[in-house]
Structure formats: structure tokens, C-alpha cells
Amino acid sequence: MPDDDAKSRLGLAEMGTRIMSGNSRSKRTIIVDGVPLPDVLDETMIHGVVHGFYDEIRCDELLGPIFHQRIQPDEWPRHLAKMCDFWSATLLRTARYEGRPLPPHLAIAGLGEVHFRRWLKLFRATVHRICAPEVAALFMDRALRIAHSFRLAVAFSRGETTIGIEPIAEKDL
What we know:
The chain is mainly α and 173 residues long. The protein has eight helices and two strands. The protein has helices spanning 4-9, 12-15, 43-59, 64-70, 76-91, 102-106, 113-130, 133-157; strands at residues 31-32, 35-36. Strands 1-2 form a two-stranded antiparallel ribbon.
């Protein structure tokens, strides 16, 4: 362990380093919105959320057909791995995700408010079923931000006004 002088020479990321055992998360202390991530949020939990959520999506009457049209059965393992990478990068600050999530969504004709609300409802049910409340809140905060950003981008790409597009609040789902 570095002494106090050595610590002062280290960057902020290194100062947050800690030893964690039995956890599949990086040894860095990850700060989100000024608060350290709970130790229970790790790759295993992200895997559970992603796989549980997409199990629900694939069975959903509204969203299932959209996904089935775009993802062939043999492509699901790759898609799920990519989504695990996305959420790992989003919450655990890993660098595994390589991609641009918006363009595939812009290509979906008719994608609208009802789809985003349904996506958020299913996601909320999944994270509340799998995660501790403080972790579910982190997932939902990011999901709500992503949904709002995508809704704005979809409207803009269609030449529609974005002025009246308000963020969807979790309490309104």
C-alpha cells in the first residue's frame, strides 16, 4: 500500500483502488453521481439483469416481434453479450462496450412512446426483481436517461419537433 506521499502523486482513479474479494467487479472504487457504487453491483448482477430483461422482452406482445424481426435465434447470445458489455461500461465504467446503440433504434419504423414506456416498465420490473433497491435505482436512472435521449433522437431524425418531449419519470410508468 502506498504511503501518504505516494498517494498524493497518484491520480484520483488510483486513490480509489481497493481490494475486493469474491466480487467480479474491478478493484477500482467507482463513483456515480458522487456516490460509490454498492459492492453488490458486479458483472454477475449485470448478467442477471440483462438476461432476465431480454427473457421478458422476447415474450412481450409489443416488443417481442420487433426484436424477433431484427435478431435471429442464433444471434441472441452475441446480442446478450453486447448488452452485458453495454451495461458494464455504463455502470461499472469498464471499456468493454464497442458500438453505437442509437442507429439500430433509429432504423425501426414506427418506434414511439408506447414502445419506450413498455421497455422501461419491463426493465423496471426486472431490476426491482433482481437488484437491491439502491442498485435498481442506479439501473433505472440510466435507463430513463437513455430512453429520453433515444426519444429525442428518434423525433429529430424524423424531422419532428422535440420541444414537447419530456423525460419519462419512473413514477409515471
